[in-house]
Amino acid sequence: MSNNPPSESGTPSDPNPSQWEEIMRSLFGDQADEAIAQMRERGIDPTQFAGGGFPADPAALEPLLNQVRSMFENTGDAAVNPNIAHDVARQAAAQGGDPVVTAAQERQVRQALSVAELWLDAATDFAPSTGTARALSRAQWVELTLPAWQELASPVADSVSKALAQVLKDSLPEGFGDNADDKIGFEISGIPGLPAQLSGLFGADQFNPDSLMHKIGSAVFGMQIGTAAGTLSRAVFGSTDIGLPLEKEVGTALVPANVEAFAEGLDVSLDDVRQFLALREAAHARLFANVPWLRAHLYGLVESYARGITIDMSALESSMRDIDPSNTEALQGALSSGVFAIESTPEQKHALTRLETALALIEGWVEEAVAKSALAYLPAAIPLREMMRRRRAAGGPAEDTFASLVGLELRPRRSRDAASLWAKIEAERGQAGRDAVWSHPDLLPTEIDLDDPSGYFTRQSQQDSDQSDIDAVLASIFEEAEGESDKDD
């Protein structure tokens, strides 16, 4: 029972009705008056929100209202809610602390990256990237790379949203939608953690299936991508070391806090660890900067995978049942447990295999370039190389999050095979010949080449011979057609 004294009308007086009205209008916008009127028709009086266990101070509801507002606000056509992704990523990055980059760390990182470029000049024909060299905090890494994570997840998120909408449409009565006035009322009632006084709050909001599922899917993927990106920010060393180009304008960067945490407990000096990681970062950057089609190729494989996604609604309902929306950690845990139960088609499995092969080829090339450039200067490069191989093969929580949600493997499991293949190519054709393989996607080695590196040149010769035969046949056809044209003239 409310402790507020009754007003002249016989109802408990609101300690600050203007604040409640302000919250209602911020939530409903232009539809606030209609929403409040409908609430009163349902017997819900906003001025009585301070009673019945509701907080007397409306500001206490602000976190909950912000969550709901962020989830259902207009995000345009975005398949991943950028506001949710950003907020969750920053929160995840800040867990355990996020030290500010000091002037000394900035200087050390820039020097290490500069030295790395000099050493790499002797290990590859690719020119240095023209991007900026930076030292980043974890929050800065999130800001720098989050747009790429959203782009990476958007094809999958869009397919999942469409699949959700189709499932919802299939559950509607036959003929629903034939009438332009047919709408679905979305009412947040019975959700654990939501006060009873708000059970009819969203009855005024009407959504069609596509709009509703788009908003829900966008919010879900926003939280998922934010969680993964924020978690990765506490583990990555730079902007390229996960194997994907996360900047459109390729540069180099290291995260000093993560580099120093990695070096703790190793029998290698921090300076050597930093220099080794700077070499890897600079080598990745050179590859992405000098192979302009590579970024589009990788993201295209993700898009190919995203086509035809199906979901198991029973798994979705089971994962989300009894989850308190105000408990962010519980919600994120549910979303990380394979909530969409995606079933890969043969075409999708083929795209994933090609993606894994491409990531392995990138990692293998970087390994060879770094090993060659560090051989004369960094004795610790060999054990550090092996340590990085194991780290990349094992992955981590954030990489597992992506895999469980959308089936995307960001781990180059076959980097050893790829490194052996690149070494054989260089031994046969030299450094320039090795780097020339990246001149066109059709020249890239395949999974078969990783299985049998020694047979790569035989297969390439056969492929060149077959292409020559095709070219000869086409030339003959064109000559014959041209001759017939001359006769007609």
Automatic annotation (TrEMBL):
Q: Which InterPro entries match?
A: Zinicin_2, Zinicin_2_N
Keywords recorded for this protein, A-Z: Hydrolase, Metalloprotease, Protease
Source domain of life: Bacteria
**Is Transport tagged as a keyword?**
no
Q: Which Pfam families match?
A: Zincin_2 (PF10103)
Q: Where is this region: Disordered?
A: 1-20, 449-470
What molecular function does GO assign, one term? metallopeptidase activity
| Biased segments, Polar residues type | 1-19
Record protein name field: Zinc-dependent metalloprotease
Give the species this sequence originates from.
Answer: Populibacterium corticicola
